[in-house]
Specification:
This protein is α+β, with helices and mostly antiparallel strands. Helix content is 52%, strand content 21%. A hairpin with a 2-residue loop joins strand 8 (189-196) and strand 9 (199-205). The longest helix has 33 residues, at 455-487. The protein is elongated.
């Protein structure tokens, strides 16, 4: 009896086991209890993509191109001529490259460039990475402002191009008609002038805005950020008349210009002294809204750019593909995924039992594997939606996890029994070395898929990488101590 008490496993004492237990508890809390949504049932707080939730997706093609050229003319003069001849917004990317925010075939552009004193050296349909980031940011802002849950927006770049050509929008739980309305919807933008504290009068709607620039520093080289924009000639006349009528020119501090998007104030500031002086004598079409200095000023300028566009994208898009998954089919996929996971776990358990014929080995293995999946779900609840690809990743993690636990078990057992503590730790260290090398290989293989714009494969890669990290850092070390304690009895 004394020998049994000395050999009995004292699992909670080891900090590795304690860390795994704490992670499991926190993951369970994150999935089902923080916050608590009883109406979600067994799904808890997990986010599901349109594969499992049902919904719609749209793939939009950017109507623009990136053109490299050779010229002896000054860049500013060339861009001005190109903008006039093409009737499109032309944005410089480099000293010899521009982005044209309107679609033209190469043949049509070559004659225009020749006319403007330049020669095209390369042509790529699509847009620059900076404009693609703006598109993604605007769509995310639009989707979030409408309260749409579980939206995925991915920029897609064709292999060998280097320039984004598509954006894919996935909206779980949203039908196709609503998805098209959300993506194509522009907000109701309005500029008002403050008359008395808390009261304002309408000046312009968003249709008076004819152009919006990217955030810039003004004066150039300073740390002050803002957004330049232009309004129509008729809008400039109305702005001047209203500013004179309500005192914004004579007393700017008491009569702010207020910008409102969908009944929400997004900007409020007085006229600058220079602008107030100019408005006394003439209408002004080119305006600049200052947002402050530093990172906060830049962030505010980026948000204001979106508001000034009223949710409109900086470049036109055309639907290149679309599809939907009915809610009933999504629920079917969800249940099938659940059954596949349970079947995989039972199959793994049967194979392990056939190998060792010892429940005291099989049960800790299955338990450790379940703990790993729970922790993985707890983390994924915060960072990504679960789709069929990510479920496949979890099943792969379950299989590779068992492989690594077998490596530990076979390595530490010596002729069917646990060796001395010192020899055990050496064998465990050797097993962990093998596991870390294998995990590093998997990590490096999955990293490109996780970073690339392959939306259908990214979930698989991210889940696999997380599973590898959880296994190496949490569950494998804990299992090594658990199996030592159990087999030493």
């Amino acid at each position: 009896m004394k020998r049994d008490r000395r050999a009995a496993p004292n699992l909670p004492v080891d900090w590795r086991i304690a860390v795994m237990i704490v992670c499991v508890i926190l993951s369970v809390a994150a999935i089902w209890f923080v916050p608590f949504h009883p109406e979600n049932g067994i799904n808890g707080n997990l986010q599901f993509g349109l594969d499992l939730e049902g919904g719609s997706w749209l793939q939009l093609e950017f109507q623009g191109e990136v053109v490299a050229f050779e010229t002896e003319r000054p860049l500013d003069a060339l861009i001005d001529d190109l903008s006039k001849n093409l009737d499109a917004e032309v944005i410089p990317i480099d000293v010899d490259m521009v982005e044209i925010r309107k679609y033209y075939p190469r043949e049509d552009l070559e004659s225009v460039f020749t006319q403007c004193g330049a020669e095209i050296t390369s042509y790529h349909q699509g847009i620059s990475a900076g404009t693609a980031d703006d598109v993604k940011r605007i769509l995310e802002e639009k989707v979030n402002s409408l309260g749409t849950r579980d939206a995925k927006i991915n920029i897609l770049t064709p292999a060998g191009s280097g320039f984004p050509q598509y954006v894919r929008v996935e909206l779980a739980g949203v039908d196709m008609a609503t998805a098209q309305e959300i993506v194509g919807r522009q907000g109701r933008f309005e500029i008002r002038v403050e008359t008395t504290p808390g009261q304002s009068e309408h000046i312009l709607f968003g249709d008076a805005i004819t152009g919006v620039n990217v955030p810039t520093q003004y004066p150039r080289g300073s740390d002050n950020w803002g957004v330049g924009f232009t309004i129509s000639d008729a809008g400039a006349e109305v702005l001047r008349d209203s500013a004179l009528k309500y005192g914004a020119v004579s007393d700017p501090e008491a009569h702010h210009l207020v910008m409102i998007l969908d009944d929400k104030t997004v900007y409020s500031a007085p006229l600058s002294m220079d602008l107030a002086a100019r408005l006394k004598t003439e209408p002004v079409s080119n305006l600049y809204a200052s947002t402050g200095s530093g990172e906060a000023g830049l962030t505010a300028a980026m948000a204001l750019e979106i508001h000034l566009r009223a949710g409109a994208l900086p470049v036109d898009v055309q639907v290149a593909g679309s599809g939907s998954v009915p809610a009933v089919l999504g629920e079917h996929f969800k249940m099938m995924s659940f059954y596949a996971g349970i079947l995989a776990l039972l199959t793994v358990g049967a194979v392990i039992y056939y190998r060792y014929r010892e429940p005291k080995i099989v049960l800790p293995m299955i338990g450790t594997n379940c703990a790993e999946i729970i922790i993985l779900l707890g983390i994924s609840r915060f960072i990504l939606q679960l789709d069929l690809a990510s479920i496949a990743g979890m099943i792969a993690v379950l299989g590779t996890g068992i492989d690594q636990l077998v490596v530990i078990t076979d390595e530490v057992l010596h002729e069917g029994r646990v060796p001395s503590p010192n020899l055990y730790l050496k064998r465990l260290g050797r097993a962990m070395t093998i596991i870390i090398i294998a995990a590093s290989t998997t990590f490096m293989a999955m990293l490109p898929l996780a970073l690339m714009d392959l939306s259908t494969l990214r979930g698989f890669a991210v889940i696999t990488i997380l599973g590898v990290l959880i296994g190496v850092l949490i569950t494998r070390p804990a299992y090594g101590r658990i199996i030592m304690a159990i087999l030493s009895r």
